[in-house]
Amino acid sequence: MLLDNKVTIVTGASRGIGKAIALLFAKEGAKISAIARTEEDLKKLKSEIESNNGTCLIFKGDVSNEKDVKNAVEKTIEQFGKIDILINNAGFGIYKPVVELTVDEFDSMVGVNFRGVFLFTKYVLPYMMKQNSGVIINISSIAGTLGVKNMAVYAATKWAVNGFTESIMHEVREYNIRVASLCPGSVDTNFSNVAGSNPPARNKVLKPEDVAQTALLIATLPERAMLSHLILRPTNPK
């Protein structure tokens, strides 16, 4: 197994890309620590992983809440004694012109999409630095590399994630910690189905499993090699 005994935290793990990553990494031998807001979906994920002889801890919580983040990290350490991989996946978008966005909607997107990445990175890194190894993969978006109409704040949070990722990579590479941003284009999830007035056909866009396979590639490169920024696009979305 490619990830035998690797302890992996996955945020936003109850559905979509996060769930696909949790399932694939568990299949490859990782011990999963999953956090999301929807407890019922988390229980389904746990059942699916454990029915295939995997290991899964679940935490109902908000990645923008410092107390929830600290609890998930500390309980993961208590249970497994280490953290090898962190997948910062939780995120969402509200698609409106800026003049129609409320301040609360702005704060929510910044909180989940960027503050959550900061908090989990902040509290996981000391353990990775102590063990002199680790992988952090931040699931960003192609919207973090270009401007998109009616997605200004969402795109801004993903630009922030990409800048944060690049900077953190330079801070911790001396500890043999690899930090990467993975930027998918359109993915066939409930998240992307609300984007735009004329979204690509579902059979043309990426699947969550495609993103999961790419995250697995990043996580399983030889320790001497690091993919720091990757854009994953549908081949032919038209």
Automatic annotation (TrEMBL):
Gene3D superfamilies: NAD(P)-binding Rossmann-like Domain. The keyword DNA repair does not apply. The keyword Oxidoreductase applies. Transmembrane segments: none annotated. This is 3-oxoacyl-[acyl-carrier protein] reductase. Keywords: NADP, Oxidoreductase. It holds the Pfam family adh_short. PROSITE patterns: ADH_SHORT. Belongs to the short-chain dehydrogenases/reductases (SDR) family. It comes from the Bacteria. It comes from Candidatus Kryptonium thompsonii. InterPro entries: NAD(P)-bd_dom_sf (IPR036291), Sc_DH/Rdtase_CS (IPR020904), SDR_fam (IPR002347). One of its GO terms (molecular function) is oxidoreductase activity.
